[in-house]
Design goal:
The chain is mainly α. It has a single domain, classed as Up-down Bundle (Four Helix Bundle (Hemerythrin (Met), subunit A)). 69% of the residues lie in helices and 3% in strands. It is built from eight helices and two strands. The protein has helices at 13-31, 36-60, 66-90, 97-125, 136-148, 154-167, 179-194, 202-221, and strands at residues 130-132, 173-175. A two-stranded antiparallel sheet has the order 1-2. The longest helix has 29 residues, at 97-125. It is globular and about 55 Å long.
């Protein structure tokens, strides 16, 4: 009888990176109430791995379970983890029962909409060059970068989170980033994680600026579609 785990021979190198993404999501959620900045850094690092697994899948080939693992990992890293980040920020600023309901209800709705969004993506968008609604990775990156850039006012964080609850499931079409632009974002992600305090936090601010620019202008002004030449998503 073979006692090797079932994944042996079925998962590829990209899948290993994807599971690392999921582990970072757990670590972010686990430390959120202790160190908000570290939790935000874990979210951004998970976003880096989310990009790397796609590159590896295109380079070495994907597996049948790859798309499912990708969405499941993203639930942890870009659904639960950023929601816990929000809870940690607003948790000490609660008074009435209504305030508590809002403080926990909005992050809960964020997780629910991230799950719905990822399910829709896997079913309908995985093979397209655009995707409906704000990517959960972008929503989580924006929240993480905002925290590292010093945006920790509970009301502002809740408002941003509430906006993403709709934007993730909105009909707005977002084009995939070209490889060069994804690489630039990845570099800024890494710098924001490794040296977040450099020059007064210039890299988290730069990441937040890039994320907001794509969030607000990407569906209408991003030039990547005409130059895409068939660049694929993870499959």
């Amino acid at each position: 009888m073979d006692f090797a785990p079932r994944f042996v021979g079925r998962l590829g190198v990209a899948d290993a990176v994807t599971t690392g993404n999921a582990a970072l999501g757990f670590l972010s959620a686990a430390v959120a109430t202790v160190d908000v900045a570290l939790a935000a850094q874990f979210v951004l690092l998970a976003a880096v791995l989310d990009g790397v697994d796609g590159v590896l899948a295109r380079r070495y080939g994907g597996t049948r379970v790859g798309p499912y693992l990708d969405s499941l990992a993203d639930v942890a890293s870009f659904g639960v983890a950023p929601a816990m980040l929000v809870v940690a920020i607003v948790g000490d600023d609660l008074g009435s029962a209504i305030e508590r309901a809002v403080a926990f209800g909005i992050p809960a709705l964020f997780v629910a909409m991230a799950v719905v969004r990822l399910g829709l993506y896997t079913a309908y968008d995985a093979t397209r060059t655009t995707t409906g609604g704000v990517p959960s990775t972008l929503a989580a990156t924006t929240l993480g970068a905002a925290v590292l850039a010093g945006v920790e006012t509970p009301a502002a964080v809740l408002a941003i989170t509430a906006a993403f609850c709709y934007l993730m499931v909105s009909p707005i079409e977002y084009p995939d980033l070209l490889a060069r632009d994804a690489l630039l974002m990845g570099v800024v992600h890494v710098l924001a994680v490794v040296i977040p305090g450099f020059q007064g936090g210039m890299f988290p601010v730069a990441l937040l600026t890039l994320s907001l620019a794509y969030l607000l202008l990407g569906p209408w002004l991003y030039w990547g579609e005409a130059e895409r030449d068939g660049e694929g998503k993870r499959s």
